[in-house]
Sequence to fold (733 residues):
Amino acid sequence: MPAPDWPTLLQDNLRTGGLGIRPAHAPNRPRWQFRAGRSIRSAPLLRDETLYVISVNGTLHAINVNTGRAKFTFQTPAQVHSTPSLWRNLLLFGCDDGKLYAVNSESGAKAWEFPTASQVWTSPVIRDETVFFGSADTHFYALSGASGDQRWTQALPGKIYSTAFATEKQLFVGCGDGRLYSLDPATGKIIWSTATGNGIDCSPAVVNDLVLFGSEDFFFYALDASTGVTRWKYETGLGIVSSPAVANHLAVFGSKDGHVYAVDTAEGQLHWKTQVAEVVTAPPVIGDGIVCIQSGGLVALDLASGKMVWRAGLGGSVQSVPVLTGDVIYLASLDGEVYALE
Amino acid sequence: MDRRTFVKSTCLGTVGFCIEGAPANPQQQPAPAPTLPQAPPIEVHGLPQRKPSPLGMPGLYPGRVVELVDRNSIVSNRVAQPIVCSMLEQGMKELTGERSYSAAWSKLIQPSDIVGIKINPSGAPACCSSPEIVREIISAVQSIGVPSKNIVVFDRYSYEIDVGGYQALLPPGVGVLGIEDGVGDISGYNLNAYCEVNFFGEWETRSYMASVVAQTVTKIINVPTMKDHSAAGVTGCLKNLGYGTFNNVARSHRAPYSFTDPLIGLMCSAEPLRSKSVLHIMDGMRMVWHGGPLTQVQDYIYQAGTLLIGTDPVAIDTIELETIEKKRAEQGAPSVWQHDPKSITANNMEFFHNPAKNLFYRRPGHVAAAGKLGLGVAEPAKIDRRTIHRS
Fold:
């Protein structure tokens, strides 16, 4: 059976990390707490009974979720800000040493590595056995997932801190030059690009032939996926780096103005907005009727109304996303603590 | 540092401390102030065998400040980069007296330099060094022959740089460095350059100079913001350099008391920080007149559309202090010199939302104290203030 694709950050538009929509209840007590030792900037991943967390000092921790203890660690030589992706038995992530690493998710052994000329903060995405990612060296890469061999590379005018979205016929990625690019996944050729007013480092979501993303120019955009024409845009109070989650015809995202917004994907009309903190930079994740986001602490909002459902004073984050399961929420926090909350 | 330097630093620090509390405008003298504690002796240990540079603070143009105001430089809270570019060019020519932009920059930066750009990301995203201004500074430095790989934008806290989004927003090839990742991370500091003092019985009594300043860069361009500061009175050129270069500085203020005066000036006097800091470009696109340095409350952030340019950090900070005082007076807020016990609150939210409240007795006297240390001109009458109203 072929390995499922991992076409975007945390595998799907809901940012669920491949888990699908799960019920999430207000946490009552910690099951365990794991000290990673250093700050955590990226989002954790869960597969079977292992939680994968990478601290910014470059240590990958594979944590047994039953015991809260590390099964193995893998150390990179530089910092890591990249959220990992899972494909087959490989955990893939970028590193500030400019390399993309593929590590065996069972043993922690390095399978392959691929060098670029600058730091890789983006999360690799995988489609049809090809790994796609951008680097701060201004290049976008396509590699063989199995071997790490380069298939093609495409130079862009700015640094790439945006995780791509891969469909069958198009890749979509934001760039530091303020443009959103569509590339041909077979060749890397630029199909179209659309300008915004400032850099883009959030990851786009793609739904109903719309490319949805925010820019540092304060606007949230919906572009026609085929042509790049702007269908609508919605203005917030400050820049947007929070990658959107999409469900029930709503795009949900945070803004640096401290609010979480829900706009309808068809017209860009505001459905609700809720202030959750002074600044929001992390992506939201959508559970069963709720939106969870790490900002200051962990906040849960009602997906339909935006009303605060509950808040936990744990889990400060720049870019981390909680893992929601039926009975446990896993949180990686800026201060280096990992929590399993029942 | 030898004993003579130590004594000098300590004494000057005491002078600075003693003159603190003298308001710029005596008419703003508040109600009787409480007696504030004396600052303990402070040892300053710069790197040995460093010859002070004539380009170092106060630099080539002591007392000269070019102030450019352009209301179109910030519209709807967005900084207009083309206008900033024009302001920077006009300001650098005015500062140096050179006719060409590249000649103006070449007075201070050489192609062989390794250039550090010290930003202020604290307060991001509401008020931090604007990426648009930093991009224009980078472009200017590149234009005189400094390669991108020899330019590094830095600050102490990497997570604040992350929130500001500088990595994605600055040009390719330019380094972006957060010196530390969390409390206790001293891997980015030089243990031979430090300030030592025990303010409140803290367990760690040293503050170390960042290695990027001590060793890596040869010149520093300082890009502070224009902000009120709950402990220091204002955070401008001096505080952005001193507290953004040395670690373990939050210990200098424990509510309601602050020893930012004289520590800020003393830190800036340490070599090689003093010699390498050759230019200061204060980002006054947004001016925080209350709640600094971390506020996100837009009610107290005025879109001033201003740049202050000079080689003298004391003169720039003196103007900044005057400007913020004026704005606070316009808004009915008490002076930053006020030391009224009734103004003190331990409630952060009350402080952020009430300009009459503060967490500390502010110590804006650090600017004048730095002047006494020879870092620049603090007397307003002696400052060559060249104001250019562009629109």
The domain at 3-48+56-389 of chain B is CATH 3.40.50.11440 (Rossmann fold).
